[in-house]
Design brief:
Helix content: 55-70%
Order of helices and strands: HHHHEEHHHHHHHHHHH
Strand order of the largest sheet: 1-2
CATH superfamily: Farnesyl Diphosphate Synthase
Shape: globular
Largest sheet: 2 strands, antiparallel
Strand content: under 5%
Distance between the termini: 17 Å
Number of domains: 1
Bound molecules: geranylgeranyl diphosphate
Number of helices: 15
CATH architecture: Orthogonal Bundle
Structural class: mainly alpha
CATH topology: Farnesyl Diphosphate Synthase
């Protein structure tokens, strides 16, 4: 990888893998207890919400929230709520994205998609209910030192999910199928569709701790934006390079659907180079936080080097 990593030699990536496993496990437990029990009515809906959220996924967004929380010395109990809310929104977006009216996919996280396992109406409602539950969690738990910060967190989160964020990006994505678009147009779409929630994960995790200065928030925001974009570039590379078994979702989908991607617009090698450049810039963005940003740096590297 071209990027110049500034990670302490005393903390190799194996240490990151232990940390990542612990966060993923803790998130699974947190989500299990925060989601409605499968045997409470309406049981089929609750079952679908749990199916869409539990037992899979890399939990990258949750890890980003935890890693950013380390920068502001945040209480892990608070971060857990924020991370659970973000993962619920992510799970809802995947359940809806897989619907026949959108990407029409049958495999997600190595198992049948939510509408295949249940039915379309249930998958739609499960996504709706996951979104509502995520916002309920953010409003029910104390997450920040001041009410003002907590309200700002709600606003940031809502914007990241809505028409100026993920839902807007998805709308642009659907409108672009089969069209010739430019790289800046592709970038704009992904900054919304995939990037907005990733960026929000970083900022919300940091907001759970002591208030940071404007410059520090700007550095974290830049990191989130770069990592969000890198995530998508790598997703495009994996979609054409990897296979369905490794990915746990249908590989080659973008090309089959005639969707513009970083690979189709730039070519494979330039896309790889671009991902490496984004990684380098993301590492630079958090360099000023020193060892407190160790996990953020390792996560950026993981996101760019991942194989699934
Ligand atoms: C339906 C409002 C609405 C939005 C959908 C994010 C999204 C918008 C659709 C997902 C489509 C997709 C596969 C995008 C590529 C990037 C991406 C979000 C991949 C899936 O995220 P991972 O790899 O998934 O973090 P896991 O399963 O590991 O959690």
């Amino acid at each position: 990888m071209a990027a110049n990593l500034k990670i302490s030699p005393l903390k190799p990536m194996s240490d990151f893998q232990d940390w990542a496993r612990t966060v993923a496990l803790e998130m699974e437990h947190a989500l299990e207890s925060l989601l409605p029990a499968a045997n409470t009515e309406p049981a089929r809906l609750h079952d679908a919400m749990r199916y869409a959220t539990l037992g899979g996924g890399k939990r990258v967004r949750a890890m980003l929230a935890f890693a950013a929380g380390l920068v502001s010395g945040a209480d892990p109990k608070r971060i857990k709520i924020v991370a659970a809310a973000v993962e619920m929104i992510h799970a809802y977006s995947l359940a809806h994205d897989d619907l026949p009216s959108m990407d029409n996919d049958v495999l997600r996280r190595g198992k049948p998609t939510c509408h295949v396992e249940f039915d379309e109406a249930t998958a739609l409602l499960a996504g709706d209910a996951l979104q509502a539950l995520a916002f309920e969690l953010m409003a029910t738990h104390r997450l920040a030192e001041s009410t003002e910060t907590q309200v700002r967190m709600q606003q940031l989160f809502a914007r990241a999910c809505g028409s100026h964020g993920m839902a807007g990006g998805q709308a642009i994505d659907l409108a672009n199928v089969g069209k010739q678009i430019t790289l800046p147009e592709l970038e704009f779409m992904h900054i919304l569709k995939t990037g907005a929630l990733i960026r929000a994960s970083v900022l919300l995790g940091a907001d759970c701790g002591k208030p940071l200065g404007d410059a520090e928030i700007a550095h974290l925001d830049r990191y989130g934006k770069l990592v969000g974009l890198a995530f998508q570039v790598v997703d495009d590379i994996l979609d054409c390079e990897s296979n369905t078994e490794k990915l746990g979702k249908t590989a080659g989908k973008d090309q089959d659907a005639n969707k513009p991607t970083y690979v189709s617009l730039m070519g494979l090698m330039p896309a790889r180079k671009f991902a490496a450049e984004l990684l380098g810039d993301a590492l630079d963005a958090v360099a000023g936080f020193g060892e407190n940003a160790l996990r953020l740096r390792q996560l950026a590297k993981f996101i760019v080097e991942r194989q699934h």
